[in-house]
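MODEL INPUT / OUTPUT PAIR
PAIR INDEX: 1
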Amino acid sequence: MSLSPSQIRRLAAAARRAARSSYAPYSEFRVGAAVLTASGKIFSGCNVENASSGLTICAERTAVFTAVAAGQRRLVAVAVYTPTPRPTAPCGACRQVIHEFGPTATVLCVCDSPDRIEISLDQLLPKAFGPKDLR
């Protein structure tokens, strides 16, 4: 699905705002994410680090889990903001979680420059394992 300029602006702004709430005392890499659901609602999240690194959660998963906790099960798009000169795509774990609820969702990655990535999840995670594989 192609996002409208308005949807891109709203999602990118929500992801940037979410990064302000990031808890990143170890990496100082403050990431924000926002998801657009099939109902048109936007949910956001930030990364939350933990002294035990393996317990850290990425912004993308926080946003997806927030949407799911609110009863939303279909993702149309995910925006990720990183405080970098070039956009950064979601990690493998986040790609897998996004796939669960939006296997063809648009992934929009924005940063501190005008550069951006806009790609579908199925291009970022080809031949993904998902719910259809369990049936």
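PAIR INDEX: 2
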Amino acid sequence: MKKVAFFGITALTVLGFSTLMLFNACESDPCKDVVCLNGGTCEDGTCDCAPGYEGDDCGVRSADKYVGTWSAVEVCTSGNYAYVATIGASSTEANKILITNFGGFGASVVVVGTVDVNSLTIPGQAFGNVSVSGNGTLSADGLTINISYTANDGTTSDVCSATYTKQ
């Protein structure tokens, strides 16, 4: 009878220890209840957003912060200029913006920029005989963009620093 009791206690002890180990060995999934939108993926409980999106759940288009009418003041090697530009979000790519009247070159000039949260890249592109490229940053309050760019017409280069202020 003592052997049966000993084996019963031993079996219960092994079962209890195994159960304890099983529950302690399981880690909860930090991404279990996290929903990441717009192609974002969860990493350790936090959304890693696809290009062009930001926010806790990747639900905000970065380009939307840039949309609006902007007053621009430029200091260039060729002189100082002031003009109004309009920025719209691309309808096809979440991280692209369209800057109309970029550089004060006219309403028919639309330059494409790539945004990544608060930074802006203007990849090399041409309109007419002028090519432009540059980069910039959006202020933390979303009301100012500082852009540095170079415009080249094939014979001369004009280096400019522009400050865009949201109207």
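PAIR 2 NOTE: The mean pLDDT is 89.
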